[in-house]
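Tokens as discussed.
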């Protein structure tokens, strides 16, 4: 493996773009029909979870051996430093939107002290009924929970025998099936995001575990050679599109996303061309900010499109404008808040030798 796999960063950018199009496409300009229905679009979040587990496995493969407690505390600090600075800045923007009633959004009256504390501590994805200031922040919050379990999950997937590895992967797959059959999904079986339920956390930890399990044997794919791997990648992408269009069942698509992460991890020529190019790589670099920020402009985008006639063309033009704003703001927050905040919070920590991949913020 090279020190950085641009395709893995780029697929994060694609995932963030899919989430944005999915949420913006659900707007009903005529109050009846969605503008751009995107089947299974919410599953880009599951891609993030699997990818995060995979990259964490590489970044911390040799951790928690010499001084387990100290290394565990250092890992958690680095993960908080990775997530919190951008989250804090973007939370302020959502707070201002509510405080000044921009674009007709609800007021702050629905947030109590419990919600305020829960949002400040990033607990909206823990099943504690914390009403989120940033609607999509449950995923980042739940990922913090996965990080807390990381040493245990890594031990069962990476450091024990193949039987325990298989049991861990099977348990994670079973958990995903259980979440999908809970009948609590909004737009589809796995669209489970209720802040009153522990199931979003289960969804997150299960995806994270599958990413860890994948990392143990992904290198065996190299035996196939780059040509075969590129053919498999192309076939997998076609299958993903077919699964999105032809079925409402989330589980085949979920399996294909796990396969996709494994194939992209090998950094083949096709993977680099499709997902490691400059555009997707740039999107991937600021994908976390894009993910948290994009809903801030959703209502203004719809209002502006209705002002210009509520046509699909008007909505497409306003979306293009707002996405440029989202991307620009995301870059600014990444450049002046996320990266400096991460470096400031981890300045006193000495990185371990096995953490080189953590530096490019893929996880």
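Sequence:
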């Amino acid at each position: 493996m090279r020190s950085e796999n641009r395709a893995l960063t780029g697929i994060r950018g694609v995932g963030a773009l899919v989430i944005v199009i999915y949420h913006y496409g659900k707007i009903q300009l005529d109050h009846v029909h969605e503008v751009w229905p995107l089947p299974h679009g919410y599953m880009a979040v599951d891609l993030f979870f699997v990818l995060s587990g995979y990259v964490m496995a590489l970044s911390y493969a040799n951790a928690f051996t010499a001084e387990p407690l100290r290394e565990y505390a250092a890992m958690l600090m680095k993960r908080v430093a990775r997530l919190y600075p951008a989250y804090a800045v973007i939370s302020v923007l959502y707070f201002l939107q509510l405080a000044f009633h921009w674009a007709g959004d609800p007021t702050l009256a629905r947030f109590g002290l419990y919600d305020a504390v829960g949002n400040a501590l990033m607990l909206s994805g823990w099943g504690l009924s914390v009403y989120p200031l940033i609607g999509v922040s449950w995923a980042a919050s739940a990922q913090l929970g996965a990080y807390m379990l990381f040493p245990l999950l890594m031990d069962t997937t990476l450091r024990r025998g193949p039987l325990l590895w298989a049991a861990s992967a099977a348990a994670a797959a079973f958990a995903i099936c259980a979440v999908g059959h809970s009948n609590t999904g909004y737009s589809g079986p796995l669209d489970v995001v209720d802040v009153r339920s522990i199931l979003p956390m289960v969804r997150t930890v299960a995806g994270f575990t599958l990413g860890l399990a994948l990392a143990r044997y992904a290198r065996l794919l190299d035996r196939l050679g780059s040509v075969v791997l590129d053919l498999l990648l192309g076939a997998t992408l076609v299958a993903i599109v077919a699964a999105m269009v032809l079925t409402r069942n989330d589980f085949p698509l979920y399996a294909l996303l796990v396969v996709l992460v494994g194939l992209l991890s090998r950094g083949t020529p096709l993977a680099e061309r499709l997902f490691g190019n400059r555009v997707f790589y740039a999107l991937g670099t600021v994908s976390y900010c894009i993910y948290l920020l994009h809903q801030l402009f959703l209502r203004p985008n719809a209002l502006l499109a209705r002002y210009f006639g509520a046509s699909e063309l008007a909505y497409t033009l306003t979306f293009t404008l707002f996405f440029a704003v989202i991307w620009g703001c995301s870059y600014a927050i990444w450049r002046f808040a996320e990266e400096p905040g991460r470096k400031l919070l981890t300045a006193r920590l000495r990185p371990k030798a096995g953490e080189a991949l953590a530096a490019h913020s893929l996880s």
